Amino acid sequence: MSLRSLLLLLVFVAAAHRGLADDGYRLWLKYDPITDVAQRNAYRQAAQYIAADGSSIVLKTAAKELQRGLQGLLGQPVPVVAKVESGSTKRGILLIVSPTANVSVTGHSQDGYRILAQGRNLVVTGRSGAGVLYGVFALLRELQTGQPVSNLAQASSPRIQYRLLNHWDNPNGTVERGYAGSSIWKWYELPNNLDPRYTDYARANASIGINGVAINNVNASARYLTPEYLQKVKALAGVFRPYGIRVYLSVFWAAPKVIGGLKTSDPLDPQVKQWWAAKTEEIYKVIPDFGGFLVKANSEGEPGPQDYGRNHADGANMLADALGQHDGIVMWRAFVYKANSNGDRFKEAYEEFKPLDGKFLPKVLVQVKNGPIDFQAREPFHPLFGAMPKTPLVLEVQITQEYLGFATHLVYLAPLFKECLDSDTQTKGPGSMVAKVVDGSLDQHRISGIAGVANIGSDRNWTGHPMGQANWYAFGRLAWDYHLTSAAIATEWAKMTLTREPKAVATIVDMMDKSRDIYVRYTTPLGLHHIMGESIHYGPQPWLAKAGRPDWTAVYYHKADSLGLGFNRTATGSNALALYSPGVQKQWGDPKTCPLNYLLWFHHVGWKQPLPTGRTLWNELVTRYYTGADSVTWMQQRWASVKPAVDPAVHADVTARLQIQRQEALWWRDACVLYFQTYSRQPIPAPFAPPTRTLAEVKSLVDLYQLK
Amino acid sequence: MSLRSLLLLLVFVAAAHRGLADDGYRLWLKYDPITDVAQRNAYRQAAQYIAADGSSIVLKTAAKELQRGLQGLLGQPVPVVAKVESGSTKRGILLIVSPTANVSVTGHSQDGYRILAQGRNLVVTGRSGAGVLYGVFALLRELQTGQPVSNLAQASSPRIQYRLLNHWDNPNGTVERGYAGSSIWKWYELPNNLDPRYTDYARANASIGINGVAINNVNASARYLTPEYLQKVKALAGVFRPYGIRVYLSVFWAAPKVIGGLKTSDPLDPQVKQWWAAKTEEIYKVIPDFGGFLVKANSEGEPGPQDYGRNHADGANMLADALGQHDGIVMWRAFVYKANSNGDRFKEAYEEFKPLDGKFLPKVLVQVKNGPIDFQAREPFHPLFGAMPKTPLVLEVQITQEYLGFATHLVYLAPLFKECLDSDTQTKGPGSMVAKVVDGSLDQHRISGIAGVANIGSDRNWTGHPMGQANWYAFGRLAWDYHLTSAAIATEWAKMTLTREPKAVATIVDMMDKSRDIYVRYTTPLGLHHIMGESIHYGPQPWLAKAGRPDWTAVYYHKADSLGLGFNRTATGSNALALYSPGVQKQWGDPKTCPLNYLLWFHHVGWKQPLPTGRTLWNELVTRYYTGADSVTWMQQRWASVKPAVDPAVHADVTARLQIQRQEALWWRDACVLYFQTYSRQPIPAPFAPPTRTLAEVKSLVDLYQLK
């Protein structure tokens, strides 16, 4: 073949290749060739072969993933050798599983790894195949983000043991609160047809340390416990196993009746116990490394043990008994609130669960949402954290943006997750952070867990909004190590996913890190909450006064009247504040010391009350709505400035979504200031121009999303 | 750059390219390089440039599409030139729009094209830009399927004017009866964000002659008529326009009440008329080439003119009036059947619509499903065809496999579509085929239409089952020319999509062409119908005896008893047969001359009644169930034999789905023979072995799909 024809061929192959815009499918595992020649050569020198010592199936995955990553980054194949030839002068990467590996002493060392430059080689060691796999992804991350590797010496173990995604995916392929297409699980095609996407999903999870997946909605179908569906679940478990990921099932409490043919689902009924024990045995025969059960019971219409006069502990312990000697757990959700309650929904989970502390068997963890209501853009930490020292608590956060603008608003969630993790419950004195409750260190629990409700769907780019990928990534990284900063995680992610151009990275990270606060400002500033569109949970609807239940309205929460705004949860009100430790009560109980971010969560504040900012409540509220909406314009400008550094398709996609976000920020702003103005009877303060549309006009816009 | 480094680079780029398995996204427009060197060179000789004469936006698309196709197939760029240099000796392809172009005289010449080798050049002429675009895709098809082009001379015009896809897509992103992920329309992101997929969708449609799209479910939301959603629709229309595709909307009859604030939706109310007229004006201001309205009214709970004592013509005519001078149409669906009817659902559409023949305004077409019930695997043609000579009738077929095994069963639907089109209504003597009713030639209608309910979703390969793409393709090709054979269409599709290896193509086409008959055999042989799983419409449930309405059960339709099986629709029964012309009545009315495929549609036949096949009804029924299920094994073998010729990922995908199909064919077989055996009390005839499971076991399998 002549040079000329070769060149021509190359031009065409490259053109065909270029034609493929970045569609986001590869997430942060892109492995595009490193263009810095000196750096690439240094890495090439250091990675001339891969040697894997051990037979673990996960170790094999580690070698394969390392090979794949290196081939992409270095632009040349790197062989996996069974054994290093003696006397070889080549430099390589050794992967070693050793039960006594010297990994980080903090955290769960079984999953830990160490990466060390030793002599000619880089050595990745772990106490398990999974540990080495996490080490490999950590090493690849160093290369992807352009770090030197010659003197690498790092060791890390995860602080939390069970790091799970929760999929709210239904058997019909829909995803409850999913905004990225349909479920990625193809139930009609399983177990025969294994979509290659299942493997890519597992790769992505393993790369950020996620080691478990509850694959079905907590509003669960009984289907998954049938022999036929267990075969389908087994097929998925088979794909995930080589990546160190275990499968968990959400269970429908009435399954013994619905598919077992029993007359009851009473957890203390001997037949029911026997049914669950037999079912659990059946599951472990099919899936020997099954992770366990996730349960939503007696919550929002789901059946549960209370239907039989039993309590949550009776239910959870029955399932723990059914697990017997198997290495599985029960995650029992604390997200409960009674229908037509006259009290304060804020308090209900606490009131039901706090008395049960100490009543749960060792295999049970109680899964608590970050805040007391339901994944609002900002909530104070859930009062159960620190209040159940005898029970391991799983922290549940939402990665999918149910209340956070779906897939059209750019909201980077690491700051939200960290705000909760860093909150000091003070239940064992200052420093009793939620993170320490969750990782078990505060109360010396043997097991610990964290769960993120997935934002993953069948959209080509997995998450709808391209920047939503960062929330999946950040959840995994924080589950591993909550000491990482939001900005550090965003920097890693942006470098691997969007661009390696330093100024662009800094711009993007700045924008991401501020985005959640911006969202709060234009939707629910100063501690407003639950004023969004009915049932769809999109757009503003602060005027919602009638719904299926009082605690599904907006007025229940904001309590606007001619005097002021906010929910009085002090002793003169619902007294939900009393659920917190005295130190927290003291700070939050006084409107002067309560952080402004939580102010209206706990206080009914007069419209003209001056705040520490120097403005009255009304003026501060309006200021936040306006500056919040204007900050979206700032984000648009920031994003426009990185255009040369980002793939054009991705850039255009985010640009379009930011336009929508700007429009909808104005929609939120106008809806809320015009509505609350009907109570405050105050003008829009300078320098802000009053909305140019009427409240009625904004209301009709919102109605759109409620139309049949 | 040295030859060596070039070679290395090439290897890597090619490897990266090879790594991309065929994910089906490119459909039949793959344009992979032609590997036959002689053929490629011949094509390269003939296509050295493209010249487009005219300024139509669709003509520009034609040039662009031709360039794209040629670049892929020929492996070299082909320039588009403004004008051919005089004295040039190069050979090229000329695209010409000419109002007097000599296209095929049969059919709608405005969309027709001619391709002719003239002197050095190939000339593609059309009377419109769309005509040239269709000609370009026809030319590319010649190249894709390896036909010689040196003496090309062909002309073609579509027989049917309005060739539409109907999307049953909902505003929340779900698709009613969709089995390929979620809707491809991203309503929350429109109008700002234009998914590149919209363009690829338009390309695929234009390539098979589809010129209209009703983008939303006939169970319609009022949302689409709001100013906000019209902006979103406008954005889609803008993507489709350069491909000659117009947008249509399904309308919610109660829209004047729901979004117009009126007290009524009575079509004769002046305010209602005015509202629709104003709304239509508003639509045309936003979308000047808007196609018109599709209406499901007074059907399955949808509101309609009958709510006000008016009839379908009153409703349709009011909308036609609203369209005024705009170039739009009204497609009014005839799919109606009253709740709790004591009659025969078979007759209801006829009884409601036949008396209205002649009452509709010129812009109205009545849209009739292929058969009288609802998209069963086999139905006799709808008795309205031929019975409404004064009204243009749109034929509605279902491309999505609601009753045909979703996305797990391989069922090629061209034979089903053709069976209906080729049916002779005999209403104007022999030769009065449904096709001639539909294309308007039988009754000299000026307008004609055909609609296919789309099987398109967000799955990467668009249709879930890779072979489902062939059904989309076949619909378009038959809409253009119903004289094409099923096998010819399958051959085109397979060559463009799967392989060019002649023996493999023949094998695949054989399998496809028999697949629908195979499906009928293992599910509903001999004219059985509507015995599938309740509401989900998947799997067998012939024992279903109670449902929301009697005509939603299975027993209503099969009427099995100790004497025999089948629905007596002769004069001694419901007399639905009387709706057909005398010739049809005569043939179908006598069980001896009634085609076996329709037997149980019209006759209650004794279990021991001998059939023309020499077997009793019972033995024939069992034989068909068994041979049908075994034919899936035959399909598996056929598919296995083409493995070397087909992309490995696609081959594995179809292989896995065939495994499921085989299991479910056995499930259907066992369910039906065991259930009907409880009435026939006859043994399974030799050589077939009785099912090894009990009816109760099969029933519990079916229950799975009905579980919460």
From TrEMBL, chains A, B:
Q: Which GO terms describe its biological process?
A: xylan catabolic process
Catalyses which reaction?
Answer: Hydrolysis of (1->2)-alpha-D-(4-O-methyl)glucuronosyl links in the main chain of hardwood xylans
Keyword field: Carbohydrate metabolism, Glycosidase, Hydrolase, Polysaccharide degradation, Signal, Xylan degradation
Outline the extent of the Alpha glucuronidase N-terminal domain: 27-139
> What domain of life?
Bacteria
Q: Which residues form the active site?
A: E300, D374, E402
Q: Identify a single GO molecular function assigned to this protein.
A: alpha-glucuronidase activity
Domain Glycosyl hydrolase family 67 C-terminal: residue ranges: 463-686
PANTHER family recorded: ALPHA-GLUCURONIDASE A
**What is the protein named?**
Xylan alpha-1,2-glucuronidase
